[in-house]
Write a structure and sequence with these properties.
By secondary structure, the protein is of the alpha+beta class. It has four helices and eight strands, in the order βαββαββαββαβ. The longest helix is centred in the middle third of the chain and has 10 residues.
């Protein structure tokens, strides 16, 4: 399951993800991270059965954590199956099926938003 973690670095440079791995024993896969001198956001993937444990421990350490049930969403009424999203996606979320209809594997999505920018019909949205 994917978790979106936001944290402030104002209280020091604690290695929050490493701390949670050590405390819980749960291995965390960082899929995307944007961190600067004052704050950070990381999209992480953890086993489904450990999701709440990791979320709670990160919250104890001062992070704001959201469980993401979905990745990118496709509005099929707007999509014209042009494939503009296919080549821009770094995780191969999009492909054509045998009928050249767009196929989406949303579990692969890392919420980078590149597909939304590329879509000429605004048929793609990210979870709020």
């Amino acid at each position: 399951m994917k978790l979106l973690v936001n944290f402030s670095r104002g209280k020091g440079r604690k290695p929050i993800i490493a701390q949670v791995v050590r405390d819980t024993g749960v291995l965390i896969n960082v899929e995307r991270a944007v961190i600067d001198s004052s704050e950070g956001e990381a999209l992480i993937d953890v086993p489904d059965d450990a999701c709440r444990l990791v979320r709670d421990r990160m919250a104890d350490l001062g992070a704001t954590v959201r469980i993401l049930e979905h990745g990118v969403s496709l509005d099929e009424s707007e999509c014209v199956d042009c494939g503009a999203c296919i080549s821009i996606c770094p995780r191969e979320v999009f492909s054509f099926d045998t009928d050249f209809r767009l196929h989406v594997v949303e579990e692969r999505c890392i919420l980078c938003g590149k597909c939304m920018e590329a879509c000429p019909h605004h048929a793609l949205t990210l979870p709020v």
